[in-house]
Amino acid sequence: MQIFLPIAEVSVNAFVLVGLGGLVGLMSGLFGVGGGFLITPLLFFIGIPPAIAVATGANQVVASSVSGVLAHVKRKSVDFRMGGVLLAGGLVGSWMGVWVFTILQQVGQVDLVVQLCYVVFLGLIGAMMLQESIRALRRSSKPGHRRRLHQHNWVHRWPVKVKFRASGLYISVFPPLLVGLAVGVLAAIMGVGGGFIMVPAMIYLLGMPTKVVVGTSLFQITFVTAFTTLMHAVSYNTVDMMLAVLLIIGGVVGAQFGTTLGARLRAEQLRILLALLVLAVCGKLALDLFLTPDDLYAIQPGIG
Amino acid sequence: MRGLVALMLLVLACTASAQSLVPQPDADDLPIRAAPTADPPPEETVVAGLSSDSVAITASFNGSEILIYGAIKRETPIPAGPPLQVIVTVEAPSSGVTVWRKERKAGIWINAEAVRIGAAPGFYAVATSAALDDILLPEWDNRYRISLAHAMRAFAGEVAVESAVPFTEALVRLRQDEGLYRLDEGSVSLIDQTLFRADVSLPANLVEGAYKTRIFLLRNGQVIDVFVAPINVRKVGVERWLYRLAFDQPFLYGLMSLGVAVFAGWGASAAFRKLRRP
């Protein structure tokens, strides 16, 4: 069934959009990532103009995160205090990121910087997670091993300590604030919620237990993407509600299945899956950068 | 029988042409009837009509077919020599685009050089009654900018590259690959050098605006008469409502998008909880 999108001004198959939303929603519920890093490139592939794909992708991420975060609240796996601190950093970071984005646009190399960002960050994070979770899987299969709650590193020696009860942490407020800020900057430049960066940062940098990481990350993503959506709608008129509704229908259902599935899988297996997914997207983007393109020329709307 | 049909078509054509002859603000660069030779008046002129002078984009819009038909009006017998030819073009409103060329730098392909094109139509279809090169002389093509190569209207700013030709060729090639620029040679059917019809299909990814249809009469590769008619392409119903809201009330629209998202997220969460624990 073809449907015409009023803002994107293209006609696409409605079922493809619902399916796409469902796939990304599943990821969202399963891993606690918003799915922006998947939905945005996928929308490019089916011919949605990039600016609209980014803005509408953010809107779809709001819906799937709300759906996911509610499921996590019920299971008491959201650290609201940690989420609030991350969010405060995230909003400032996202505002800064938009400012950097505008400068890049003036220089004319936005595409390249965005793609390089993706390749570098996805590659680093994917490799780190894969290595760590394989090690954890081996360790946990050996009986009699005493596991520590989390690793203590330099991050835990900073001042202004706060108790994050749900995470079982007593650490300085600055590391999560900085994580939120950094993720906000990257999220605005890359046009994503930033969950795929934040989840590993929460696990490896802050030492949060995997159980609360997903819910807390979703909580932060909901607000950051809501802020992004509103900003895009007001300043660039690039949110396509028709497109968003179709993606959301698939997305909310997918997110619920993802959360249910996530509760049944072991944390290490979950992390290996996410690591492989991140590396796959990274590999695809890297190939695009290094292989000779089919056509050296490309059309970009506008003469700015 | 054939004569009767032709007569009916002619009558239809004349009534339809009457309404499309109303001056339109869009037909700026060409007058409605632009005879290339001012005097004496051309011996053969074109009267034409469109199956519809507007295209409504609804939610289920999936492209549209436009029938352009008409007849050649003449006081004198059909002149001897090579037969009359017809070219029909349909073009979307123009907008600015940037064409980038990638280059390998430090192993990575990056956008290196760009040509900024001030105006190129988002859609351009050319339908002809015979091979375009055989029926249109280059100087007349230059004058009326008929062929696809001439679809590009103007550069924007200084051209910084050595030669802009590969860039403009790339624009036409890429748009042709997407089906946005089309040359359909021989798709205009011409009967007895008097009646013609052309079917132009508009793609699904149409941009709103005033489209322009041009009909050229040619003899010996020269344009002897031009007829211009507008086609109004606009969104209707929910499409129009959403579009207007997004541009007139962006903050409200943004809040509404968020509201839909939050409600859908909450709704699914609640529904699944009910399903699991009946």
From TrEMBL, chain A:
Signal peptide as annotated in the record: none
Q: What subcellular compartments does it reside in?
A: Cell membrane; Membrane
- Tell me how this protein sits in the membrane: Multi-pass membrane protein
- Kindly indicate whether the keyword Transmembrane helix belongs to this entry: yes
Entry keyword annotation includes Lipid biosynthesis: no
Q: Cite the InterPro entries for this sequence.
A: TM_pro_TauE-like, TSUP/Inactive_protease-like
TM segments? 12-39, 51-73, 85-106, 112-130, 173-206, 212-234, 241-258, 270-291
Give the GO cellular component terms, alphabetically: plasma membrane
Q: Which UniProt keywords apply?
A: Cell membrane, Membrane, Transmembrane, Transmembrane helix
Q: Which family does it belong to?
A: Belongs to the 4-toluene sulfonate uptake permease (TSUP) (TC 2.A.102) family.
Protein's recorded name: Probable membrane transporter protein
Organism of origin: Paracoccus lichenicola
From TrEMBL, chain B:
- Entries under InterPro entries matching the protein: CHP02186-rel_TM
| Residues of the signal peptide | 1-18
Keywords carried by this UniProt record:
Membrane, Signal, Transmembrane, Transmembrane helix
Domain of life the protein comes from:
Bacteria
Q: Where are the transmembrane segments?
A: 251-272
Q: Specify the protein name.
A: TIGR02186 family protein
Q: Which organism is it from?
A: Paracoccus lichenicola
